[in-house]
Amino acid sequence: MTMDLQHLHPATGRPAEILVVDDDQRLLTSLATLLRQAGYQVTEALGGHVACQTLKEQSFDLAMLDLRMPGIDGFDVMSYAASARPECGVIVVSGESAFTSVSRALRRGALDYIKKPFDPEELLETVRNVLGQQSLLRDHADVQTRLKKSEALHRYIVNSSPDIVFMLDQDGRICFINNKVNTLLGYLPAELIGQHFSIILDDQDVARGTYAILDTSVSSDNPRTLELRMKTRGSRKANRHFEVTAFPIAPDTWPHIKDGSDRMSGQKARFYGTARDVTERKEAEAFINFQAYHDLLTRLPNRALFKDRLNLAITHARRNNQKLAVMFLDLDRFKVVNDTLGHAMGDRLLQAVTRRLEGCLRKGDTLSRFGGDEFTLLLPAIHGDDDAKHIAQKLIDALTTPFTLGEHEVFVGISIGIAVFPEAGQSMDQLIQNADIAMYHVKGRGKGDYRFFCDNMSIDSANRLSLERDLRLALDRDELRVYYQPQVCTQTGQIVGIEALVRWQHPDRGLLYPGDFLPLAEETRLIEDLSERVMAKACEDVGQWIKAGHKDLRLAVNLSPSQVEHPRFVETLIQQLQACDFPAGNLEIEITENVIMNDLDQISQKLRELADHGVRIAIDDFGTGYSSLNYLHRLPIHTLKVDQSFVRDIRNGDDGACIVNAIVAMAHGLKLDIVAEGVETDAQLHYLRKLGCHQVQGFFYGPPRPPEAIQQALKQTHLQMAAI
């Protein structure tokens, strides 16, 4: 009998190894020979004891053994093989034919039973069948093991997925969901099983999500992907954004789940999907979009968003024949706070100002930070100017209370220019520009107020740009001139002081007066350079006259609010006097009441420092501002200058002089010097002299003149006086 390939082991491809066990050497040899001729690898074991020892040392595919053996019989060998070599199959070859013996052998695990004497062909066929059956069992066990491992791996992958993985039944109820739903949304998978998937959708996305996922046009080849918001468990967490991909699966593809650990309901799954958390991406996109259209410090709309809303508002107002207002807001004294306390405090102040301004707005108004300390405000659909006036006054009032920044208490005001559509402009750019122009007219008149744009404010853009360019060149070309107006003693007629006044010798327009260019200098921040230039020239001229013998001659100089409010104002002024070798006691600075009252504490400190250096302080245009006795006795003030509007009202016996009377009486009571401005007639001079006014200035003694004319006048002992 020759070896056939069918006797090879199905799994390894080698001849099957068989252990033959019998206590009869003749039968043992006969059976072993038969199996070897059939191509099997055969090992002989004489008796049960040798069989167990052999099984202990070597593995076999099959054991063929006799039952009745002395000492250790076949049943004992079967028991030992079951524990030591469970992979080894057993065929009983025995003379026992009793049913009990056969039954017992099969219960012990025997795969077949061959009765002695045996037919060789029948025996070999039985061996082949048993080895084939073993191979099938072994393969099946291997498949089951691999399947269990595969399921465990799949379960691990699904539950370790960064995405929520879910399955829905045909009604949209959740029949499977992985553990990621707990990590991302806070729900336990078990509590969602059997619930409709809309339970975890944001209320605003329920209809859209339900329609999209259950849409019949969606297929596995054409899945539906959309972004949905899902609810997080608990009110403290914000809902999150997910990119959901879902598609139907064929019936019968997913069987009913038997294992409750898989968190599935008894319904068959009809939809499969994943939900990827894209909250960070959405937040990043939202932040980038916010950055593009908002100011990050104040969180207000920026210039781009404001213009976009203004364009829409103009279109709406034009279509409905309505009005709207654009306000241009500029903070007063913000630069002083920023320079004094630093940019960090300046930023905090801007945020605090923003909160107060927002509290004054109506629903639908747009407040925007235009840049720096400038804001714009859109008031859509107003009924008339009164609406804008009301809001403007609320904004001004909102900033009257001081701001607390750490240990500092600071005051800021606001100047507001208003342009109303359609009267003040038909386009976005016109409205913004005209509101800006109106705001600078407020600045020029003392700040802390509002004004509507009107045509006589307008300086065309080309002219404004040209004048600004020329003003910058004027500083480089030394085109500024200093003129002087004498301040004359009413009793002696002597020049006791002179006020320095700036003029601009424009190369094309001729001699320009302060009203022609100082507002533009304030607007373009050139006022400080201009004032510094005027001060240097005045100190040079008057210093020469003092050294020439007029040792008591007083120089009066007007200072702009921005100069006085600057944190280094005192230091800069004293350094300038020292550089010009000008005696501080001969200088009198003139400031308005409005400048003082903008920040009484800060200005008081600066004026005291100047007074300590000998500088005199004069209140210019007294009576036109706050006129508060509260600051007069608190500050080191030396002179009150009566505004020319009051002097102009002086008539012989006219009641209009009562204000002048009160001011002069007040000055006498406070032991202050008095200078009356705008004296033009003999009657005014006579009245003021009689009233006890110390000094006068005005066209009665001539207009402001260049230094050469003043030098000539100083050579005279007295000026021509009117008859007493």
TrEMBL record:
Keywords linked to the UniProt accession: c-di-GMP, Phosphoprotein
SUPFAM superfamilies: CheY-like, EAL domain-like, Nucleotide cyclase, PYP-like sensor domain (PAS domain)
Transmembrane segments: none
Domain GGDEF: 322-455
Catalytic activity: 3',3'-c-di-GMP + H2O = 5'-phosphoguanylyl(3'->5')guanosine + H(+)
E.C. no: 3.1.4.52
Residues covered by the Response regulatory domain: 17-131
UniProt keyword Phosphoprotein, yes or no: yes
PROSITE patterns reported for this sequence: EAL, GGDEF, PAS, RESPONSE_REGULATORY
Principal EC category: hydrolase
Domain PAS: 150-221
Cited InterPro entries: Biofilm_reg_signaling, CheY-like_superfamily, EAL_dom, EAL_sf, GGDEF_dom, Nucleotide_cyclase, PAS, PAS-like_dom_sf
GO molecular function, one term: cyclic-guanylate-specific phosphodiesterase activity
GO biological process, one term: cellular response to nitric oxide
Cofactor: Mg(2+)
Every EAL domain range: 464-718
Entry-annotated residues carrying 4-aspartylphosphate: D66
Protein name: cyclic-guanylate-specific phosphodiesterase
